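Students often ask what a holo structure prediction actually looks like on paper. The answer is less mysterious than it sounds. You provide the chain, you provide the ligand, and the output is a string of discrete structure tokens encoding the 3D arrangement of the protein together with 7LS.
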Amino acid sequence: MNADLPGPVLSNDAEQVTSDLHRHFNYTLGRFNTDEQQGYMLTALSLTVRDRLMERWRLTREAEIQDKPKRVFYLSLEFLLGRSLHNAILNLDVEESVRQALADFGCRLEDIESEERDAGLGNGGLGRLAACFMDSCATLNLPVRGYGIRYEYGMFHQSLCEGRQVEQPDHWLVEGNPWEIERLGRTRRIKFYGRTEFLHNAKGKIFARWVDTQDVLAIPYDMPIPGYNNDVVNTLRLWKAAATDEFNLQEFNEGDYSDAVAQKNLAEQITMVLYPNDTSESGKELRLRQQYFLASASLQDVISDWVKRNGEDFSEFANYHCFQLNDTHPTLAVAELMRILVDEYILDWDEAWEITTKTMAYTNHTLLPEALEKWSVRLVGELLPRLLDIIYEINARFMAVVAHRWPGDVDRQRRMSIIEEGHEPNVRMAYLAIAGSFSVNGVAALHSQLLTSGLFKDFYELWPEKFNNKTNGVTPRRWLSHCNPRLGNLVSDAIGDSWVTNFSDIKNIGEYAGDASFREKWFEVKQDNKKALAQLVKDKCNVDFDTSFMFDVQVKRIHEYKRQLMNLLHVIHLYDRIIRGEEDSVHPRCVLLGGKAAPGYALAKLIIKLTSNVAQVINSDKKVSERLKLVFLPNYRVSAMEVICPGTDLSEQISTAGKEASGTGNMKFMMNGALTIGTYDGANIEILDAVGEDHFFLFGLKEEEIADYRARNDPSTIISNDTDLNRVMNLLECGHFSLFEPGIFDPIIHSIRNAYDPWMVAADFRAYVQAQNKAADYYQNKQEWIKSSILNTAASGHFSSDRTISEYAKDIWGIKKR
Ligand code: 7LS
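The corresponding structure tokens follow.
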């Protein structure tokens, strides 16, 4: 086989697709009865579509081997892909034929697609960003491969029991996964534990060996990542852990049988479950094992490929490789690359360090101190003794650089050390990442600026040239074409469909904002999408959302800094206005909250419980529910967002300024024509810049005001001086929403009244209510609102991940289209 073979041969015509679907259903799966077999129909259809990716996948790979371009490897502990079927159908442009083929079986595409489970291999924004990036890389025809972990259990399933979050395991692979190909031949061996042994080679040179290790196998599973209509299929390689053969041999020894099986389980544990935290909960050894497992397997994979094709000469390696680290989670890659080069290929330290620092690039995603990773030296030393040696050596040389730049500045050396000294010394992963990388980027303009002026100031002073910004984006294929086909078609009918791959063209839809008949069509699409969202709410919450009400939505992980609580206080305030007889001042509104709380984050879980209780009171009060509804939608995930964002009028992006690195939900809502109510934070700022203040409800303290205000913050005085907030607090404090469980919301009440409340909920409440009132009034003016809606979509051109990835490719990676 070679790349000169003709292009894809499997036809997309309806006849061929129909016959393939029959073949897979009857022969691959052995099914003959279409009734009650939708699950099998899903698999048969997935295989039919997958067939059409296979040749393109091979050709993409072979062209790459031939052309030898510089390649990028995106290392991430999370890839939150969601569903794959529709994405593949869209990108292959085979929807019409698929619909016809399914009609043959009496099936509808929508029904089949909705059977697919989400690949929930991520917590939230960071994981979904990785998935959007993979889509853009394939669409832009860039030689980028993703490396991640094939968790047996993805993000937990959330349900509500008496209004509280209950977590259930997400065994997403039970019915098989047609989107992965196991590649046993590329299995790697990963070392753990053991010790370092120093030896002399024949030339008298000292070298290290990592011995007496307990090894684990890493088996790759490849997922195809199709580009949009361009015959490109890139690869996402996910690693699964397996026990080595030694365990099986041990099993022959009767006496140790149970022990051997236990050991085997220990090995396989590594990729068993995605940790459902998006901050902190540090110190878990299994998490560190996951991180090293990913870093080591991926680097071994890339390097063995290089050695196979180029021998052991690494002089050109850095010209052909770049590793992008998705936050600090895969940062052990820095030390692992050094280990492989120095220990296994006997390069000099300086040569290896030159290669490492020319190939590694690090993206930071958060300023929250509790999210900055640290690992105890003790744990690293026990689990990865050889890596700890290397980290110490990196730090020693780095400290010399710092001492040379700032002679005598001992305090600075202490501040910048990769090893944090103290009772329990720690490895600071972000510092290791910065020292080992040629590029460090934040994910929105404000965030990148705060990195260089705050968190990483010392490093910025040392290496200003490393720092840069890459504002996040989302893929317009999934987040407009796929999730909102009606709007997509309306846009294409007006301005053509070049926006799908050239998203800056979306600006042209702005010219139609002044066209009354176009506005009416836009409105109708929004109403249809609101109907679909209302149906979801009915199915999952048994609450009726009236599509004539404003749909006000906040969906994201539950976090104090994201201030779902402030949203709730506003809802309670509206409720209060209605029950005290001011209902005429409250414009009809349906409020939807959704998101998962980390299982150990008690206050986040309590916010869910409060939402449920407030919803119960509001929705069961006839007078109130004539103008106000509230739901907590359980199990928020990628496929839910695909229904939610097209049907949203008002997008809530209300984090405490300076805390949300970027946000990406904000971009999805904007693309789909929602207006934002938001703080001056993360990418909101750039959204506001793009669309203009007249089409965005800005409120709240700015980041630079907060530091100053913090010292003066006095929530209890704010509350007593604000009648509305006072009444809201009274309702909370008198137990109006916890009649049967008095006192359960005390922790929430205390957090709002806390003078040191880091999230400034009370401080921003008044400005928030004013912005909400403005939004509600504006919504009454249907024509103006629709105009703004169109202008939001039109101004979203900057927030395509194609734009983001083009910047990474040009400024950081130095790669070109294949
Ligand atoms: C994590 C863990 C952790 C985001 O989504 C941190 C952790 C942990 O600290 C600790 C123990 C076990 C598992 N998993 C998963 C993710 C994160 N950190 C972050 C940081 C930022 N997760 N973000 C979000 O990233 C988006 C994309 O850039 C931004 O738009 C968003 O503003 C940011 O919050």
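The pocket of 7LS is lined by residues 123-126, 129, 275, 277-282, 287, 327, 365-366, 371, 443, 472, 660-664, 682 (CB under 6 Å).
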